[in-house]
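Reviewers asked in the last cycle whether our approach scales beyond single polypeptides. To address this, we selected a multi-component target totalling 228 residues and predicted its structure end to end. The input consisted of the following lines:
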Amino acid sequence: DAGVIQSPRHEVTEMGQEVTLRCKPISGHDYLFWYRQTMMRGLELLIYFNNNVPIDDSGMPEDRFSAKMPNASFSTLKIQPSEPRDSAVYFCASSFQGAANYGYTFGSGTRLTVV
Amino acid sequence: GNSVTQMEGPVTLSEEAFLTINCTYTATGYPSLFWYVQYPGEGLQLLLKATKADDKGSNKGFEATYRKETTSFHLEKGSVQVSDSAVYFCALMFSGGYNKLIFGAGTRLAVHP
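The resulting structure, written as structure tokens, was:
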């Protein structure tokens, strides 16, 4: 398996623009997580899905952030409009029921810079 | 609530030194415990895990023992290398429920030649 695949690896955008980050989880995994990592706040869980259904979005910072999982093999995190304070590395991770024995598999992340 | 506390970094060591990164947890029950490592510019990778009390997880020369009495899962390595320079995250998860990993704040390790 190719692991969790995120795209793009790097994104530079201007303030006010819409940004869409993409994630393909490992086939067969039924949990998907979106994290944000910054120097100031560390690793933050934004939202997670189980069987494509959002379970907990309490970590989503504002209404400007939205996430979807239209099918088991694809998820998006959208920021509209983007602001400089959204600059961070965004990670996607996937797992399956029984992951207490295996943990999560993380993607390589998308480094977002909003100028 | 459930939480993980790690020693603050950065931890700076010379090559071949002994490493300990402390991790303690607060949990209502007996979770599985994990150490993840994040190398510069990369995502988090599972380093080792332990699923029950007294289990010892090990990988790449790193070890950690699940201590229920002290609610701890300290990471150790006998002789660090420059290539071990990374950020290390301790985490816990309960089986069942929604598989939510709870991470510590991370500890940065810098190893110098």
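Chain B has a mean pLDDT of 93. We regard this as preliminary and will revisit it once experimental data from Aim 1 are available.
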